[in-house]
Design goal:
Elements (H helix, E strand, L loop, with lengths): L6 E4 L5 E2 L8 E6 L6 H8 L10 E4 L2 E4 L6 E2 L9 E6 L8 H5 L2 H18 L17 E4 H6 L15 H12 L11 H8 L1 H4 L8 E2 L5 E5 L2 E6 L3 E6 H9 L15 E4 L5 E8 L2 E6 L4 E4 L1 H9 L15 E2 L5 E5 L2 E5 L5 E4 L5
Length: about 350
C-alpha cells in the first residue's frame, strides 16, 4: 500500500519522560478543542511550562513530530508510558460525522502512522472505537478509551461522532499485504553463538523452565540462563558447579548478570574464573572449590582490591562467628563483620 501524501516536520520539545521499560500497547487519538494548525499546536506543546505534549500533531496533511516515540508524551496521565498519542489540530470532540469526514485525508495519515508504530513496537494495529469491543487489548483507540476502559482521567475526546469505520478501513488497507514483522531474536540462541567457542554442543532441543519466568539451555561445557531482568548469560561448568551448591537461580545468588571472566596470573597461565550474579560473585580457581563473595564483606573486599588486594582469593564462603557476626576466609587472612557495624580484616591472625 502506498504511503499517504503528507509533510512531516520533526520538532522535538522538552515535555516528555522515560517509558521506564513499559511496552507500548496503544495508539491514542485526541482532539485539540481549539482552532490551531499542526504547527501552532506544536509550538504550544514545545513550551515546557504548558506541561502537555503529544507525539504527533496533524492537520491538513501536515504532521509535526513533537516527542520521540521511544519516549512517553504527556497526554494521558498514567497511560503515558505505554501509549503513543496523536492530536488532530483544530478539532473538537463536538464535531459531527460530516465535519470529521472533511478531515478524511488526515484520518488516513493517522491510520498510516498508527500501523507503522504498531509494527515498530510490536503491538496489534486493530481499531478499538466506541463502544470498545476489544476491551483492554492492544489497539488503536482514543482518549475516551483511557477514561472509560482503563479508568484513568476524565477526558472524552475524540467524541461520539468520530468515523471509526473510516479509520478501520484505512488501517486494514495499510496492514494488508504488509511484510511480517521481524521475528524477536531468541536471546539464548544468540548467546550460544557468542560463547560457541567454549560452550560445546547443545545437550537438548529447545529450552527448559527456570523460576520466575526464566529459561535455560544446557551445553557440554556450561549452560545459558535467560531472564527478562538480566538477559541471556552463559555460565561455564566450573562456575555452574559452585552455583549449583547454592541452589542455582532459586537461591540467594539468583540469575547470572554478566559473562564470566578468566583471571590470568601472568601472560601464559590462567588460574580461574569469576562471574557475577544478582546476589553475589563466584570466584573459582582451577583445581579448587569455588566460593561466593557478597554483601558487606564483599563490598569491603572489593575496596581492598579484590583478589589482587592484601587478602588474595577467597578460601571459604561466609560463615557464622557465633556472636551474631559473619566471617570469610581468604588466602592471606580473614574478614569479620558484626551487626554493630564493625568490620575487621585479620591478616596472619592479627587485626
Amino acid at each position: 500500500m502506498v504511503k499517504p501524501d503528507y509533510r512531516e516536520t520533526v520538532r522535538f520539545g522538552p515535555s516528555h519522560s522515560s517509558r521506564h521499560g513499559a511496552r507500548v500497547r496503544y495508539f491514542l487519538l485526541h482532539t485539540q478543542e481549539g482552532n490551531g494548525t499542526a504547527e501552532s499546536l506544536a509550538a504550544y506543546l514545545n513550551n515546557a511550562a504548558n506541561q502537555v505534549s503529544y507525539h504527533y500533531t496533524l492537520r491538513d496533511r501536515i504532521v509535526y513530530s513533537i516527542v520521540d516515540t521511544d519516549r512517553a508524551s504527556w497526554s494521558a496521565l498514567s497511560a503515558n508510558p505505554y501509549s503513543i498519542n496523536l492530536c488532530f489540530a483544530g478539532s473538537r470532540a463536538a464535531f459531527t460525522r460530516a465535519e470529521w469526514l472533511t478531515r478524511r485525508a488526515d484520518i488516513e495519515i493517522a491510520a498510516w502512522l498508527a500501523v507503522q508504530d504498531a509494527r515498530k513496537y510490536g503491538f496489534t494495529p486493530q481499531v478499538n472505537g466506541r463502544p470498545y469491543p476489544l476491551g483492554k487489548a492492544d489497539s488503536i483507540a482514543d482518549h475516551n478509551f483511557v477514561t472509560q476502559v482503563l479508568k484513568i482521567g476524565t477526558h472524552h475526546d475524540v467524541g461520539p461522532n468520530f468515523p471509526w469505520d473510516v479509520l478501520e478501513d484505512a488501517v486494514r488497507r495499510y496492514t494488508t499485504g504488509a511484510p511480517a514483522p521481524k521475528p524477536v531474536p531468541n536471546m539464548i540462541d544468540r548467546e550460544a553463538v557468542v560463547a560457541g567457542g567454549w560452550l560445546g554442543k547443545r545437550l537438548h532441543t529447545g529450552e527448559r523452565d527456570a523460576i520466575d519466568g526464566g529459561r535455560y539451555a544446557d551445553f557440554e561445557n556450561g549452560s545459558i540462563y535467560w531472564h527478562p531482568r538480566t538477559g541471556a548469560v552463559a555460565v561455564p561448568k566450573l562456575i555452574y558447579e559452585t552455583w549449583q551448591t547454592h541452589d542455582w537461580e532459586r537461591g540467594f545468588l539468583g540469575f547470572p548478570i554478566v559473562r564470566h571472566t578468566v583471571l590470568p596470573v601472568d601472560a601464559d597461565k590462567k588460574v580461574g574464573d569469576v562471574q557475577a550474579f544478582e546476589g553475589g560473585v563466584i570466584y573459582r580457581r582451577y583445581g579448587e572449590p569455588g566460593y561466593v563473595v557478597h554483601g558487606v564483606i564483599g563490598a569491603r573486599w572489593a575496596r581492598e582490591g579484590y583478589e589482587n588486594g592484601p587478602l588474595g582469593w577467597p578460601t571459604s564462603d561466609e560463615y557464622d562467628t557465633g556472636d551474631g557476626g559473619r566471617a570469610q576466609d581468604f588466602e592471606h587472612g580473614r574478614m569479620v563483620w558484626h551487626p554493630d557495624g564493625a568490620i575487621r580484616i585479620l591478616t596472619n591472625g592479627k587485626a
